[in-house]
Amino acid sequence: AASDVYKRQVVEGEGRFRVGDTTVTLKQWDRFFCPANVVFFEYESDAGMAIVECYPGETIRNGGAQRAVKK
Length: 71
Fold this sequence. Notes:
By secondary structure, the chain is mainly beta.
């Protein structure tokens, strides 16, 4: 489900995102998703990196209209 992941985006710099044995190389404006239940991870960067994390909200449907609310 969409609420089982959250989105991250590199807004400055470059580096690596490591979860367990998996390493992903990141550069500015890269977007990536991560399971919400991941507790242990790390960022690595030689020159610095800024990340924005977007956590999922909850979608409420009412008569065809939709709005997202924070849990």
